[in-house]
Design brief:
Layout lengths: L2 E9 L7 E9 L2 E6 L9 E4 L4 E4 L1 E6 L16 H14 L2 E6 L6 H10 L7 E4 L4 E2 L10 E2 L3 H14 L3 E5 L18 H13 L3 E6 L2 H9 L4 E4 L5 H10 L2 E3 L2 H10 L8 H20 L3 E2 L14 H29 L17 E4 L13 E6 L2 E3 L1 H5 L6
Parallel strand pairs: 1-4, 1-5, 6-7, 7-8, 9-10, 11-12, 12-13, 13-14, 14-15
Antiparallel strand pairs: 1-2, 2-3, 5-16, 16-17, 17-18
Helix pairs in contact: 1-2, 3-4, 5-6, 7-8
The protein binds zinc ion.
Zinc ion (ZN) binds next to loops.
């Protein structure tokens, strides 16, 4: 039996009280026991974790690990797999052990997931949407599958699932990837969104939608989508419809703040737009959190946000009313529940997969503790975050 014994850490299980100075026993990739004064299994690899803070492996429900780092172009882009390998390594180095990837270039996300599962590449476990589905000329259409009309959208969803997608992503409104697009426009009709929900549901899968305007969010909720990505325009009526539907929002708040602060290169023109969107969504996000809307933690890492930046999103959600403990719970147990994987991931409890992150600082006291984990463990395998970060940048 392959076992690991991590001893002496403060343990935030996301499933009960915080243990001070506890031990965690890992056997064959799963947590066997957690608590004070446990015995190390014979032959176990021991990690001394005195003074470290352990959390469940972080989960990011909005990533783009497999997009090329180039300006807008037609697909497929041959550089994509190399950027994807680098992105996966950085992502894992930040303590993220599971991602839901909401749109890759030419199915490079699905290929990356297979490579990680096969042990060829270091990275988080990946739940993939394949290519996002977009109406002709819609938001980042150059990386997506274009489809118009309910029948075409249904067929597009089936094509993504045939390729291996287990979530479906739709771009139902404009966004701010280009100066030419308009974030206020709704691009898919109610019937088109419903067709994707039906096609995904028939195979036991769910739909995530990129949506800015309130009208688009409300219609998506009415037809049964599971997660609303970005969710910029959250008035009282829209918040009520999200709660009624039991949907979650994934605000990806940090990417707008980051674009506003660091805008350069090919997206310099978007800095002003990002600043305005960030200012516009801050108040409504606070209202949604206060109203008890389920909030998923997603970074939108990819072409506009770093792959190791989940701490930035957790910090902003904490400030927006979730608090540091609430935001960490959302990034672990909460995100696992959104993915339908609460029995497998997101908490430190016997039987769960041994996905763990250990930090030098206390992330419940200061979000800067997320900056550099000391150990990252995925499925019982320990990775050295410093080595993962040293992967040479490819651009
Ligand atoms: Zn995105």
């Amino acid at each position: 039996m392959n076992s690991l014994f991590i001893t002496g850490a403060t343990v935030f299980t996301a499933a009960g009280p915080i243990h001070t100075r506890a031990d965690v026993v890992v056997e064959d990739g799963r947590i066997a026991a957690v608590g004070p004064d446990l015995a190390a299994p014979e032959g176990a690899r021991v990690i001394e974790a005195d003074g470290l803070f352990m959390t469940p492996g972080l989960i990011d429900v909005h990533t783009h690990l497999a997009l090329p780092n180039v300006p807008e172009r037609g697909e497929p882009h041959p550089d994509t797999p190399f950027h994807a390998v680098h992105a996966a390594s950085l992502c894992l180095s930040s303590g993220v052990t599971t991602v839901r990837d909401v749109g890759g270039n030419n199915h490079a996300d699905l290929a990356l997931a297979r490579a990680i599962r096969g042990g060829l590449v270091a990275g988080p476990r990946m739940i993939c949407c394949g290519q996002a589905i977009v109406p002709t000329g819609g938001h980042i259409h150059y990386f997506c599958q274009e489809a118009d009309g309910p029948d075409a959208v249904r067929a597009a969803a089936r094509r993504q699932m045939k390729a291996g997608a287990t979530w479906i992503k739709l771009m139902i409104s404009g966004g701010i990837a280009n100066v030419e697009e308009h974030p206020d426009e709704m691009h898919f009709s109610r019937e088109e969104i419903a067709a994707a929900v039906e096609a995904a549901g028939a195979r036991g899968h769910k739909v995530a939608v990129h949506a800015y305007p309130g009208r688009a969010i409300r219609i998506a909720c009415e037809v049964g989508v599971a997660t609303i990505e970005h969710a910029v325009d959250l008035d009282g009526e829209t918040i009520a419809s999200i709660k009624r539907a039991g949907a979650a929002i994934v605000p990806t708040h940090a990417v707008y703040e980051y674009m506003a602060r660091n805008g350069s290169g090919h997206y310099a023109q978007l800095v002003d737009l990002a600043s305005r969107v960030y200012a516009m969504k801050s108040g409504p996000l606070r209202d949604a959190i206060a109203a008890g809307v389920t909030v998923g933690v997603g970074t939108d890492c990819g072409r506009h946000y770093p792959h190791d930046g989940i701490g930035g999103e957790i910090a902003l959600l904490a400030e927006a009313g979730m608090g540091l403990e609430g935001a960490l719970t959302a990034a672990t147990a909460g995100n696992a529940a959104i993915l339908g994987l609460a029995d497998e991931l997101g908490t430190i409890a016997p039987g769960r997969r041994a996905d763990l992150a250990l930090f030098a600082g206390d992330p419940l006291a200061d979000a800067s503790a997320y900056g550099a984990p000391v150990h990252v463990i995925r499925g019982g395998t320990a990775f050295d975050p410093a080595a993962l970060r040293n992967t040479p940048p490819l651009n």
